[in-house]
Amino acid sequence: KIKRIVVNPKSRLSLQMHTKRSEHWVVVAGVAEVTCGESVYTIGANESAFVPIGTKHRLGNPSDTPLQMIEVQCGPYLGEDDITRFSDDFGRAN
Predict the structure, then answer these.
(1) Alpha carbon of 1 to those of 19, 26, 59, 61, 72: distances in Å?
(2) What are residue 11's DSSP bridge partners?
(3) Which helix (H) or strand (E) holds 73?
(4) Fewer CB atoms near the end CB (10 Å): N or C, the chain?
(5) Mind listing the pLDDT tens digit for each residue in 17-74?
C-alpha cells in the first residue's frame, strides 16, 4: 500500500508501532525527523528511511515548510487498526 503524507511545519505524528507491517519512507520535499527504535536522525528530499515490523517510530517536521513524503507499507496485513500509539500530540495514544 502506498500513501502520500504531508506533515505541517513544527508538527509530528504519533510515536507508534505496527505488528504486521514495515514501512519505507521517501522524502519528496522538506526535512523529516525520523525516530526509529532508539535512533533519531534527519533526512531530506530524495532520502529514505526503513522502519522494520515491531519497531517504535515517529515522523516529525522540524522545519518551517511542509514535509511531503511517500510511505510504502509492506506486510501480511496493512489495515489502519494495526497501530499501537505510545505518545501522540493529538490525544490518540492507546
Answers:
(1) 16, 14, 18, 23, 6
(2) 61
(3) strand 67-74
(4) C
(5) 999 999 999 999 999 999 999 999 999 999 999 999 999 999 999 999 999 999 999 9
CA distance 63 to 65: 6
Cell of 2: 502506498
The tally of CA atoms less than 13 A away on the side-chain side of residue 87 is: 8
At residue 29, φ and ψ (nearest 5 deg) are: -155, 145
Alpha-carbon span 22 to 20, nearest angstrom: 7
Q: How many residues does the chain have?
A: 94
Rounded Cα distance, 88 and 16, in Å: 9
For the whole model, what pTM was predicted? 0.92
Q: Identify the DSSP state of 67.
A: E
